[in-house]
UniProtKB/TrEMBL annotation:
Residues 23-156 form the MPN domain. Residues 265-276 have a biased composition (Basic and acidic residues). The lineage of its organism: Eukaryota, Viridiplantae, Streptophyta, Embryophyta, Tracheophyta. It comes from Brassica campestris (Field mustard). It comes from the Eukaryota. It holds the Pfam family eIF3h_C. GO terms for molecular function: metallopeptidase activity; translation initiation factor activity. The keyword RNA-binding does not apply. Residues 263-289 are annotated as: Disordered. HAMAP family: eIF3h. One of its GO terms (cellular component) is eukaryotic translation initiation factor 3 complex. Keywords: Cytoplasm, Initiation factor, Protein biosynthesis. This is MPN domain-containing protein. InterPro entries: eIF3h, eIF3h_C, JAMM/MPN+_dom, JAMM_MPN+_peptidase_M67A, MPN.
Length: 335
């Protein structure tokens, strides 16, 4: 057998690394994320995820919150120092201090933004596989553990690095708005001691308070907020469409000007040939009408479409649950 160095083994393992299939997160990390996000709601907060990347499983074993950000550069520098100091303290007490991503809170699932994509790309420079865990505190009142683990798709990162989101390029790659993010299944894991302790805390009652909370049919504020966000997104999408309509009008006007200029130049060249003179070139790059008009990026409209789909899904889900509760209540009253 040919002897291999440790670095050669690592590079080969990274080259054939299996795709990420599941995010396994410790119960303690879940509780820390929920506590941090709920304490500061509705202010959006973020934090660091710590753990280990093992094959097709990304293990999240711990986390810590980031201080509230500000635009001041001095405070930004203090935030970076805080992160480094926290990592050092965790290393000293033998806690996992490998960064595997970050978590952040959201309001009604409105997290599909350019800022999230830029953060992903910054993390990708140092961490090959990282995830962002999204938690929505507003859904907790509906009895839902609104945790999502997201990553950017490889096809999207390739397009983003190229900075080309024109219609022709997107059609060539067969890329749609649904291909930006990939949702990774989350598996909550606890140690045997924690599981035994939770079993001891369970009551013998067949129905808990959480079961009663799920039967509440008063979800009007949640639906109203979703409708408000949805209307705003539709307005934003309409503005993006107006940009493309303006672009196509300018493009059509430019093409008409080019054709008129070419027709005039050809007529002039016919006259010059008749006079025995050299014809003028039919292309003039210095002419402003031949300067290509840049096509607007479709990234923003794709992100808004993602948000519209998310709000519609939430409205559909909550409305369906409400109908089920109403039918159940009606049957109980009849009995």
């Amino acid at each position: 057998a040919v002897a291999r160095s440790f670095l050669q083994a690592i590079s080969k393992d990274e080259a054939v690394a299996p795709p990420l299939r599941v995010v396994q997160i410790e119960g303690l990390a879940v509780l820390k994320i929920i506590k941090h996000c709920k304490e500061f709601a509705p202010t959006l907060v973020t934090g660091q995820l710590l753990g280990l990347d093992v094959g097709s499983v990304l293990e999240v074993t711990n986390c810590f919150p980031f201080p509230v950000r500000d635009d001041d550069e001095e405070i930004e520098a203090d935030g970076a120092n805080y992160q480094l100091e926290m990592m050092r303290c965790l290393r000293e007490v033998n806690v996992d201090n490998n960064t595997v991503g970050w978590y952040q809170s959201t309001v009604l699932g409105s997290y599909q933004t350019v800022e999230l994509i830029e953060t992903f790309m910054n993390y990708q420079e140092n961490i090959k596989r990282c995830v962002c865990i999204i938690y929505d505190p507003s859904k907790a009142d509906l009895g839902v553990l609104a945790l999502k683990a997201l990553k950017l798709s490889d096809s999207f990162m390739e397009l983003y690095r190229a900075g080309n989101f024109t219609g022709e390029k997107l059609r060539e790659k067969n890329f749609s708005w649904m291909d930006i993010f990939e949702e990774i299944p989350i598996k909550v894991s606890n140690s045997a001691l924690v599981s035994a302790f939770m079993t001891e805390l369970e009551t013998d009652a067949p129905v808990s308070q959480g079961d009663y909370d799920r039967l509440q049919s008063s979800t009007t504020p949640f639906l109203e907020n979703n409708m408000e966000f949805l209307i705003k997104c539709m307005d934003d999408l309409s503005m993006e469409q107006q940009k493309f309509q303006y672009y196509y009008r300018n493009l059509s006007r430019q093409q008409a000007q080019q054709q008129a200029w070419l027709q005039k130049r050809r007529t002039e060249n016919m006259a010059r040939r008749s006079a025995g003179e050299e014809p003028l070139p039919e292309e003039d790059p210095s002419n402003p009408i031949f300067k290509p008009i840049p096509e607007p990026s479709r990234l923003e409209s794709f992100l808004i479409t993602n948000q519209v789909s998310n709000f519609c899904g939430q409205i559909n889900g909550v409305a369906g649950q409400n109908f089920s509760r109403l039918y159940l209540t009606k049957a109980l009253h009849e009995n």
